[in-house]
Amino acid sequence: MRAALISLIETVPGSTMLRGALPLAQGRLAMLHVDLAVDAGAGEILCLIGTVDETVREIEAYAARRGVAFHLVRSVADISVRLASEDELLVIAEGLYVAPADMHLLARETGTFVATFAPGDGARVLVERFERIDINHIWAGLACVRARDLVEARDLPEDWNVQSALLRLAVQRGYRRNVLAFAQAEAGRIAIVRDNREAEALALQELAGSAGALGARIVQTRAFSAIAKRAWSARWARPALRVSAIALPALAAGAAVSGWSLAALPLLIIGRMAGHAANRLYGRFVGDLTRPIEQVVRNLAFALAFLVLTVTSVAASDRLAGLFAALMLPALAVVLSRTDGPLPRFAQRLAGSPSLVAAAAMIALPLGSIMPLLMLWNLGLVALLLWQTRDRALASPAA
User: Fold this and answer.
1) In sequence order, what are the residues at sequence separation of 6 or more whose Cβ sits closer than 8 angstroms to the Cβ of residue 368?
2) 40: closest CA among 136, 111, 138, 118?
3) How many domains does the chain have?
4) Which of 102, 319, 114, 270 is nearest to 191 (CA)?
5) Quick check: 66 pLDDT over 90?
């Protein structure tokens, strides 16, 4: 069995805040360590602590949401009594940050190892953040040791850094070294976080990286960064966005039935944006991702509201045609997304985007042109499907 060792002992320079408890997006840095441990196949997590406070309990609760046992320990002796001799202990450095795309690559490592960088002429300021192993290598913040080797570290003095001791043990035992590209550290994909400012910068970097080229430029603006930070620090922000993603489409349907179609569309669009914002801002930690059933309810609420809005917005004699056009649009969009062909994936998502359809409808509705809009959009999807499924020339003529 594999267990993981994380630490909540070191404090931020000039502060009493624990480095592992630094806010990262909507959670804590140590929650990332819990995700890394679970991804690496750890059956339980051992957490080195000095004192137990509300933050430690918060991280313990997150581990429970991930379905992994969480035990508090204070020394190597406490660690070794919980492990059998054939077990492995995954040591995760305090303050370690790993970007989502790199976490799975690190978690795939099996057996005993020490993850290292060979920085060469890398920036000295950056190199000093990582613990040095020898003249050419620094620790990348992850190592896996045999539980039976912990016997050598049982008699450490109380003030000795347990993680550093286990690292030295792994190096002395000649464990396999997994040398990572130092470019990962230079790009901020693997880092040792020192303070709150750095944690915020890494969280915003993640958000920008997942938003595409245009979205990244928006995220990097001062105004958006300030909004994101406020949303992460406000406990009410996430529940408000989640409720809005379902409640606003329901209100839009009611407004459409009452004859307030012009008011219904903005409600529909804002509700959709609230759902997107909830997914983007609060999607860093696996245990806090939007559950599939909640996403299904959001999509259904939006679809039903748009359907009601479409049917109530056309003349009485055309309502059957409006129903047909509104139902065909998502059906064609789904078929397009499932059909293999040369059309880029981004173009498929854009063509079938419910948010984009709703935005276009908000322009068309005051002009009394919502039916022509839906008809043209459906024709456009059919054209894309014909392009996606066209016959392609063979690489070589048939025999």
Assistant:
1) none
2) 111
3) 3
4) 102
5) yes
Give the C-alpha distances (Å, rounded to integers) separating 69 from 3, 150, 164, 166, 278.
10, 21, 24, 22, 28
The torsion angle over the Cα atoms of residues 193, 197, 198 and 200, rounded to 10 degrees, is: 110
Q: Where are the alpha helices (DSSP H) in the chain?
A: 29-39, 54-65, 76-80, 100-107, 124-127, 162-172, 183-186, 196-209, 212-219, 222-233, 237-257, 261-281, 292-313, 319-338, 345-351, 354-364, 370-388
Q: What is the CATH number of the domain that holds 20?
A: 3.90.550.10
What is the mean predicted confidence (pLDDT) over 258-271? 85
Within this chain, do residues 251 and 313 fall inside the same structural domain, yes or no? yes
**Rounded distance between C-alpha atoms, residue 68 and residue 80, angstroms:** 19
Backbone angles phi and psi of 85, in degrees to 5:
-60, -30
**Strands 96-98 and 190-192, how do they pair?**
antiparallel
pLDDT attached to residue 288? 85
My answer on whether 324 and 368 are in the same domain is yes
Phi, psi of 296 (to 5 degrees): -65, -45
Query: For the segment 78-102, what is each residue's pLDDT rounded down to a tens digit?
Result: 888 888 888 999 999 999 999 988 8
Q: Which domain holds residue 209?
A: 201-231
Residues 219 and 272 in one domain: no
Which class for 177: exposed (0-12), middle (13-18), buried (19 or more C-beta within 10 A)?
middle
* CA atoms of 153 and 145, how far apart (whole Å): 12
- Chain-centre distance for alpha carbon 220: 18
* Residue 149 sits in the same domain as residue 208: no
Q: What value does the mean pLDDT of the chain take?
A: 86
- The reply to whether 294 and 378 lie within a common domain is yes
- Is there a single domain that holds both residue 220 and residue 320? no
Q: Is 141 in the same domain as 19?
A: yes
Question: What is the distance between the alpha carbons of residues 312 and 322, in angstroms, rounded to a whole number?
Answer: 9
Closest by alpha carbon to 119, among 180, 171, 178? 180
Q: Which of 231, 253, 288 is the last residue of a domain?
A: 231
| Residues 158 and 295 grouped into a single domain | no
Beta bridge partners of 285: none
